[in-house]
Request: fold
Amino acid sequence: MTALDWMALPFLAASAFFFLAGTVGLLRFPDLFTRLHALAKADNLGLGLAVVGLAIRSGSAAVAVKLVLTWLLALVASSTSCHLIARGARREGVEPVRGRR
Amino acid sequence: MTAGLALDVLLAVALPLVGLAAVLRRDLVQSVMLLFSLGVLLAIAWARLGAPDIAMVEAALGAGVTGVLFLSALARVGPDDAAPRAASVRVALAALAAAAVAPVALAVEALPRAFEGLGREVLARVPETGATHPVTSVLLDFRGYDTLLEIAVLLLAVLGAWAARGGAPSPRPPAPGPILTAAVRLLLPLMVVVAGVLLWVGSSAPGGAFQAGTVLGTTLVLATLSGGVALPRVPPWVVRSMLALGFAVFLAVAGATAASGRALLRYPGAHAAGLLLAIEAALTISIAVVVWALFERDPEERRAEGEAGGREGEAA
Reply:
């Protein structure tokens, strides 16, 4: 492994952790709203960390800019679709689970 | 490359499972969501197979437009139409599908194992075409005739879809809200730029009319379905001309090459690059309008309705 690979490693490992946490949240959380919360927040952070790690590994400014742009677009798309799913669910009368179950 | 192998194994296992789950789900909305996932996995699989051109189209069509088309159809039919059919019907349909796929499987099985493919021959002759990207050379030059007919099929698909749906207007989407509107306004210009870049780089890198057209078409669909951005109203004949433009330009070039004594679609060397770009640009516009037209009724219907409404108004 090169020096760049070693520098990227913590970011990629953290990224994998957040993706894993988001997926566990998706499977374990009680209702649609908390699951969306787990997905949109944890996965977007995971993707951002992956982008930082891959940008370091690429060692190229052009590739890094493209990766960051990809992340920004994914942020816009995922937060918008998350909002739409939650709004649609509210309109159909889905209520958030309150308290402990 | 064990990491690559692990990814390939994961894809090979996940693809049939997700496909099966999409078919077996009783809730059709869930089926469509699984179909989206299948499209994403397929796009990754194509990328892993070294076919970025197909991966891009799969991402735009398979993971995008096809699912949205199903969702918009589901919004239009009643719960009775969307109810799953009886088990006997499902088994019969599955048998029919299997019978249709079986000859393909047999044909693949019958292919010679040691055949190297035409790759080397194609690469050797790419310089004779107006493009430097081999996929573009194959699509528009070596097998331009097939591509010409594919465009005709797309045109027929829209005519069929318009005839089947009649004049029924689409159900009104719910009010878009500020977040969706802002996101769409941000994404639309970027998508148009991406489509333009894909069209332009198509002669020398992965991209081209099909990729650019599907991205541009998705842009139009996003603007239409989100309800946040009003597309300019154009007369019906403009929409129809744009639908036919790709096929018309392609056919004109084919006719001209045939008339000048060359083989059909054998471009004159000096003008090959320009002709390819003209065909690709026309195809991009038509493919985009084809994708959009599958979601919309024939604009002529809307105009006829408007006139009828106007006359009724006058009579009253």
Notes: Chain B touches chain A at residues 174, 177, 179-180, 183, 186-187, 190 (CB under 8 Å). Residues 136 and 203 of chain B are 6 Å apart (CA to CA). The two ends of chain B are 76 Å apart (CA to CA).
